[in-house]
# Entry
Amino acid sequence: MSALRLALIGFGTVGQGLARILADRGADLRERYGLDVRITAVADLRCGSVHAADGLDPARLLAAAGADGTFDAVDAEDRGWDALTTIREAQADVVAELAFTDLATGEPALTHVRTALEHGRHVITTNKGPVALAWPELAATARRRGVRLEAEGTVMSGTPALHLGAELLAGAGVTRIEGILNGTTNYVLTRMEAGADFGEALAEAQAEGYAEADPSGDVEGIDAAGKVVILANRVMGAELTMADVAREGIAGLTRADVEAAAAAGERWKLIGRVERDGQTVRASVAPRRVPATHPLASVGGATNAVTYTTELLGDVTLIGPGAGKLATGYALIADLLAIHRATGGAA
Amino acid sequence: MSALRLALIGFGTVGQGLARILADRGADLRERYGLDVRITAVADLRCGSVHAADGLDPARLLAAAGADGTFDAVDAEDRGWDALTTIREAQADVVAELAFTDLATGEPALTHVRTALEHGRHVITTNKGPVALAWPELAATARRRGVRLEAEGTVMSGTPALHLGAELLAGAGVTRIEGILNGTTNYVLTRMEAGADFGEALAEAQAEGYAEADPSGDVEGIDAAGKVVILANRVMGAELTMADVAREGIAGLTRADVEAAAAAGERWKLIGRVERDGQTVRASVAPRRVPATHPLASVGGATNAVTYTTELLGDVTLIGPGAGKLATGYALIADLLAIHRATGGAA
# Structure
């Protein structure tokens, strides 16, 4: 089949991770899996914007971003388009929305995603904002325009949790989803088991680069709540928003709590949970004591995991990385492969 | 899209599991996932054979098999076809090969699969024999005829290990696969950790229905070796056969071995392993001591698991059931969904 033409909105860590993978593995993806990706446009606030219908060399883009931090030296047909112009005007089948965003308004990423879908572009994104806040609206637009909205990188980075639940377990009857969806808090809890108190463990997480300077989004369970919403909507077909998630963080946990759990053969984990109960879907994030025999109990450090409870298979658990430049870049490859499969390419 | 017409070769436990799922969930699969499956033929040594181009009601087939054990009371256009006639003559897009087989010759399932592919039918199977013994030949035939060969149920029953490795991790660079692929031996090892000796544990596994009267295929690692071959060939594109697997069973393990591992914070597991080393792919089955922190260490009883080590994501582990009538029946649904996706159906 012909190449998938890709416009990147944002060329930060994730966009560069994707470009790195395409530079190193583009030929392999084409030859082994029939996935031929051609970057035709990039719009980035720092590097600037370039468009070339015949394609931009990912290695050249990386070199330019790494050298003087601009695309000035990259050959292009058009330059200086802003994100929305790029989405509307670039020759692209797929828009990768990788701009900054937040979990309060989802902007500007939400407008980017909405505009791309309305213009009949498939959208792939690693941004939780738009899909956690507006999945029902965006999914309806995608259906109406006959395009796909894929967001594998929003949950467990490139570990294919969403494609597992939504595609590979389709029809198995997922009744419950439980996951360790935030690496920072899991790292903190793992360190507390080794004897640190909450403040020490959080400082270590910050020193290791896991936690932000303002760690409240992680510690209060907001990040995990966004992922719970995405899981519920993508895998169970629910229509939840952030406000539907009952949420409790880990700041109240003490070393005494951690030791009491250990004495009972259990471990504290910040668990995101979605449960179907008839026509209702309930979602929560809260610290919970997990028996040591549960597959989630062994998930330590910054690793993430999700357990799907299904009617036909019982429990199916997926464990993998929850962050990382190449891991998150790979999430976009997984989404491109899904679009490739869905548009008639061989798997 | 139009219905996928399905011919079942074999109507034992797995075929009945599939029919049960289609009877209970056929409407849901059609409405939610666009997967419309119509059984047009069944050939079974005990129940007999029936063919109806307009479709056979799965509930009616189950009732007949459960009543007098024959399809005599099932309405049909044609009866009495043997398996090969059914494969050649039935109006079917997909042949589900569910007959008996073995890991020595793979027959008669191997001839069934080969014939179906040569006649341009997609093949789905839960039979290890044909795919462990003749994957390279069969895959080449499938490519030549433009059809798919799917065998999700041969490894970890309906837990989608093969689709995860071959589709969702495509391009992630799988360099190593390690798995607990045999439920019987894992059950025995788990019981030995609780204090049983090997003979007692094996007798318990037989009493629980996990182990056959002749448990040598499990205990000697032959079953796991077949699964290792399938993983290597399907996920890594290798061309291994059973003879390429270095194999050691668990009969030599003593309680003292198990206790020594526990004292070191480790657990004995029968590990199937595939490793890529340049152009070479090496495969083995052997009891190995796994650190308690490894995701495979927590996998107890008859549960199965596989860890894919990848260049872009590091380790990704999938844990789920390794057996069960509905679980194995669901493997065929997963394969039908993969064919549906690959032939242009929405995911």
Summary: Chain B has a mean pLDDT of 94.
